[in-house]
Amino acid sequence: MRKVFVIAILFTWVFLSAQVSLDPRYHTYEEIIEELFAYQDSFPEIVMVQEIGQTTGAPYQNPIPIYAIKLSNNAAIDEDEPALMFAGQCHAEEVLGVEITMYMIQQIIQMRFVQPYSIWLQSLEMWFVPTYNPEGLQVVMDDWDVTYRKNKRDNDENGFFNYA
Known about the structure:
Blueprint: H1 2-18, H2 29-42, E1 47-54, E2 65-71, E3 83-89, H3 95-110, H4 117-123, E4 125-131, H5 134-141
Parallel strand pairs: 3-4
Antiparallel strand pairs: 1-2, 2-4
């Protein structure tokens, strides 16, 4: 009897947790892209946005661009400097990865004249990819399923989403 009660509680919790919507302060894919290009327009000497790929496109959906932003003192030039890459959200429900990378970008740009940020901009190429699973991010942000973990396409195309 106790096992049945525990299982009932777990199923109820899983059902209710899937119904929760995210706080609107989290960035949507559209907000991420808008912010990245606004930084590039406002600070072209230290910011460059580049499309680094596209999603494979879920069934009945066009591929979505994946963007990276480069921060460096000569962002438009490919200099012989050490490069760092910060990858944000991979799994769909990992929205904090987006927020952390977006905050890092904002801080470096705002503090660009203060050490150590100015030194970083002079001596490094810093690349940030806020999300490389924009399809999964859309599932979570559109409140389809805030606990969704995968992307929207079966990667090995066998018809089953692998859970490893």
